[in-house]
Automatic annotation (TrEMBL):
<keyword id="KW-0325">Glycoprotein</keyword>
<dbReference type="InterPro" id="IPR050932">
    <property type="entry name" value="TM2D1-3-like"/>
</dbReference>
<keyword id="KW-1133">Transmembrane helix</keyword>
<feature type="signal peptide">
    <location>
        <begin position="1"/>
        <end position="28"/>
    </location>
</feature>
<keyword id="KW-0812">Transmembrane</keyword>
<keyword id="KW-0732">Signal</keyword>
<feature type="domain" description="TM2">
    <location>
        <begin position="189"/>
        <end position="236"/>
    </location>
</feature>
<feature type="transmembrane region" description="Helical">
    <location>
        <begin position="222"/>
        <end position="244"/>
    </location>
</feature>
<dbReference type="GO" id="GO:0016020">
    <property type="term" value="C:membrane"/>
</dbReference>
<protein>
    <recommendedName>
        <fullName>TM2 domain-containing protein 3</fullName>
    </recommendedName>
</protein>
<comment type="similarity">
    <text>Belongs to the TM2 family.</text>
</comment>
<keyword id="KW-0472">Membrane</keyword>
<dbReference type="Pfam" id="PF05154">
    <property type="entry name" value="TM2"/>
</dbReference>
<dbReference type="InterPro" id="IPR007829">
    <property type="entry name" value="TM2"/>
</dbReference>
Length: 253
């Protein structure tokens, strides 16, 4: 009897477990159906957004109308062979001989307009120039920065690092801006003639040294009466030959 009751209880447990499993499966299917139903409008809405975005008219970005700075140096509709170097790009002629005239193939840069001898617009042309690098040009063909921190009156004469730029109308090979070591050659406005005149007339009172900005030497000459005349005579000679200069190290005018 007890075995029969246990068997019945086991059957009921199995039926309950089977019912719960079926209920779980059905609830999972219902959830998936609900999610698909809710996701369909969203996907449709996304598709509508996508189709709307692709159907909108395409506006091209405005082209840049900025004019390069070199254009201001380039005369409009002038002869191509007479354009400044900043207005053209030339190929290197590797067969040119240093110091001799050579022909170079050139092309105008963008936004530059020039013509040939027949007043026809052209882009490719040739020019003749001396075969040499820019740093080998004469000193009159480039402009360099000046320095007021070096002494011009010294032995040996001091040099300074300068940055030089070739003039606009000069053609040359290589970089148009280059470094160079130059002698100190700046001036503070002192005149050699004034210094010499003061040394001859009022040198015994140290006027020449005061004028050149050498206060200690000027006071020494003043209180020693020009070194009893000997210092005065020596200063006349030194200023006359340019050995004694301004205290700031500049050159005479």
């Amino acid at each position: 009897m007890a075995a029969l009751l246990g068997l019945r209880a086991l059957r009921r447990l199995c039926s309950v477990a089977l019912f719960l499993s079926q209920l779980y499966v059905l609830s999972g299917r219902a959830g998936s159906l609900m999610t698909t139903k809710h996701s369909q409008p969203q996907s449709t809405f996304a598709k509508s957004l996508t189709s709307t975005s692709t159907n909108t008219p395409y506006f091209k970005a405005a082209e840049s109308t900025e004019i390069p700075s070199y254009v201001t140096k380039c005369p409009s509709n002038g002869l191509c062979s007479r354009l400044p170097p900043d207005c053209m790009t030339c190929n290197t002629n590797y067969s040119c001989i240093y110091g001799k005239l050579a022909t170079f193939d050139c092309r105008v840069k963008p936004h530059v307009h020039c013509v040939d001898q027949n007043n026809h617009e052209q882009e490719n042309f040739t020019i003749n120039m001396t075969c040499q690098f820019c740093w080998q040009l004469a000193t009159t063909d480039y402009v360099c920065t000046n320095s007021t921190n070096c002494m011009t009156v010294s032995c040996p004469r001091q040099r300074y690092n300068a940055t030089c730029t070739v003039r606009d109308h000069i053609h040359c090979l290589g970089n148009r801006v280059f470094p160079k070591m130059l002698y100190c050659n700046w001036t503070g406005g002192y005149k050699w003639s004034t210094a010499l005149a003061l040394s001859i007339t009022l040198g015994g009172f140290g006027a020449d040294r005061f004028y050149l900005g050498q206060w200690r030497e000027g006071l020494g000459k003043l209180f020693s009466f020009g070194g009893l005349g000997i210092w005065t005579l020596i200063d006349v000679l030194l200023i006359g030959v340019g050995y004694v200069g301004p205290a700031d190290g500049s050159l005479y005018i």
